[in-house]
Structures are given as structure tokens and as C-alpha cells.
Design goal:
Elements (H helix, E strand, L loop, with lengths): L9 H7 L5 E5 L7 H14 L4 E6 L6 H4 L9 H5 L10 E3 L5 E4 L13 H11 L6 E6 L5 H9 L3 E5 L3 H25 L3 H11 L6 H11 L1 H13 L3 E7 L2 H18 L4 E7 L2 H8 L4 H4 L4 H17 L1
Length: 315
């Protein structure tokens, strides 16, 4: 069976034709430390002589610049989205760190809503124009289409989770929302109309696993079931446990990965844990990244190890 005529879809098309190393860092809820992790991963790479572009895409709640000790500038991502400047590169500003530049986010209420199709397509296209070794996107919390689509487009998406029940639960539902979004996008892209209703009605049912849904699709159409399964296998997010306090917290990531693989039918790569340490509070208070002020701390060494694992995955 040949696929039906496909529709243009920026997320599906970009996932199938990736040409840049793009990481997206997110969390299922606020307060997990995603912006802290994003800023320090970027600094860690720049210290390794990598050209890095940071993009604060937490629309409506931008604060990535504060983790780098920067003040707000006159231009931000909102100026690009409202066509005040022609390209995203026009709002990228250098930081005080060599080889690291930043596209600052906007805290204007206008950008808290989901971007429309054309603005999102334009933003994704311009992100790919940066000639950096790595582009890191700090996405918003929650399960808005903005956050999910940026997470789906990255390679990989990095989920920052705290070792507490609410954070873990929110991370699980964020990943499930990503899977629902991904399946719907592929179904729409290939115009598999007879599956749209089933996805809408059944996969949103929390009592059902993704595996059971795919099994039902297999019984009806093996070709499209294989297509959707391959799409899921290409979605391989990564996990970081932040603020780990004891041995149980450090091994928690493996347990989460195993549960996710069993229920959501995706591989979740556990990158490691960042220990709880007061140097984090000191660095945030002093507007100086840990990788700048305390690189030899246990936090700094953990971030260095995680950065190494991420770069090794692309080599």
C-alpha cells in the first residue's frame, strides 16, 4: 500500500529532514530548573570551543538571560515575530562568554498564546539558519503546542525533572502529550482519516497505553501501524534528574525510563542526575552560571558529564 497524498506540515517535514543539531530543554512543570540547565549546558559547550546559540522560546515567561547575568535588551524574539526585524539573527545578541549568543525571549502577554501555523513555520525556518554547532531552545512549561512542537523537532528533546511525585507525573503527561501530538501530526500529514477519530477518542484515555492503541491499529492496517510505530521510535527524548539529594534520586532516572518504555513505547535516554547544592542558589543570586563560578563543584561536574553524553550521541 502506498501512502495517501501528504499535507504540508512543518513539524513532520522538519523531523524527516533534520540538518542541524538542535536541543530543546523543557519540563512538565515550572520550577524544575530547565533554564538553569539550559544556560549551563550552553556555557559548558562554549568552553569546549563550540559555537552555541541559545533561544529563549518560553513565550510569556522568558528569564534565560538572567541565568547568564544579562539585562534585557531592546530587541527580543517578539520583535522578530511581529516583523519589526526581518530575521531571527537580527535579535541574537552576544553574551560575555566566547562563542555563546542569545536570542532573548519576550514576556509580552501577546506571546503566551500558541503561535499560528505561519509564524511557527517562519520561526522554525529561521532557527535552522544559525550556523552554530549546537542550537539550544529553552521551551515553556506545560503542554502547549508551542512547547510540544519545539520538543518534537529537537534532537534530542531534554526533559528536566525533579525527584518528587508531582514533577514526575507532569513529565509523564508531557511525554504522552508529545506522543499524542506526534501521532496526530503524522495521521494528518498522511491523511489517514479513518484513524483520526480513534486517536482522538482512545489515546486520550489515560487507562490505555500507547502500545494497546498501536496493537489495535495493527489489526486494522499494518502498513499505517508500521508508519506510526517508526515515527515513535525516532522520537527519542532524554531525561535529566535535577536537585538529586540521595542515592534513590540518582537511580530514579532509570526507573522512569523503564516505565516510559513499557507504557508509552518510546525510548527515554537517562543522561544523569544533577545533585542538590547551595552553589546553585549562590550562582543564581549572583547572576553567574555554575559552569563559570563553580565548574569544579559536584553540580559543575554533573553538567559536564551530561554535556559530554549529549555530544557523544551526535558523534
Amino acid at each position: 500500500m502506498n501512502p495517501k497524498q501528504t499535507r504540508s506540515n512543518p513539524v513532520v517535514s522538519e523531523r524527516q529532514n533534520r540538518t542541524r543539531t538542535i536541543w530543546a530543554v523543557g519540563g512538565g512543570k515550572g520550577g524544575t530548573g530547565k533554564s538553569f540547565v539550559t544556560a549551563n549546558l550552553a556555557l559548558c559547550l562554549s568552553k569546549k570551543n563550540k559555537e552555541v546559540t541559545l533561544i529563549d522560546a518560553d513565550l510569556g515567561g522568558a528569564n534565560l538571560h538572567t541565568f547568564l547575568g544579562m539585562r534585557k535588551s531592546d530587541l527580543d524574539i517578539g520583535d522578530f515575530l511581529t516583523k519589526k526585524v526581518p530575521t531571527l539573527k537580527d535579535v541574537a545578541v552576544p553574551t560575555r562568554y566566547n562563542k555563546l549568543r542569545l536570542v532573548k525571549g519576550s514576556d509580552h502577554l501577546l506571546f503566551t498564546a500558541n503561535l499560528n501555523y505561519f509564524k511557527k513555520l517562519k520561526l522554525l525556518r529561521h532557527i535552522k539558519t544559525f550556523d552554530s554547532d549546537v542550537i539550544i531552545i529553552d521551551i515553556g512549561t506545560g503542554s502547549t503546542y508551542n512547547s510540544i512542537d519545539f520538543f518534537l523537532l529537537s534532537n534530542p528533546g531534554i526533559l528536566v525533572v525533579n525527584p518528587e511525585p508531582t514533577s514526575i507525573e507532569n513529565a509523564y503527561y508531557f511525554l504522552k502529550s508529545c506522543i499524542i501530538r506526534l501521532l496526530k501530526l503524522y495521521i494528518d500529514h498522511y491523511q489517514i482519516q479513518d484513524l483520526i477519530k480513534k486517536v482522538t477518542e482512545q489515546i486520550n484515555d489515560n487507562s490505555r497505553s500507547v502500545y494497546s492503541f498501536l496493537s489495535e491499529v495493527i489489526s486494522q492496517d499494518k502498513y499505517y501501524a508500521d508508519l506510526l510505530f517508526r515515527a515513535l521510535k525516532k522520537f527519542r527524548p532524554s531525561l535529566i534528574i535535577n536537585k538529586a539529594r540521595d542515592e534513590k534520586d540518582f537511580v530514579l532516572g532509570e526507573s522512569i525510563s523503564n516505565v516510559v518504555q513499557k507504557i508509552l513505547v518510546i525510548n527515554l535516554d537517562y543522561l544523569g542526575a544533577i545533585p542538590f547544592n547551595e552553589v546553585v542558589h549562590k550562582s543564581v543570586k549572583n547572576l553567574t552560571p555554575v559552569m563559570d563560578k563553580y565548574p569544579e563543584s559536584d553540580v559543575g561536574k554533573a553538567i559536564l558529564s551530561i554535556a559530554s553524553r549529549l555530544t557523544e550521541k551526535k558523534s
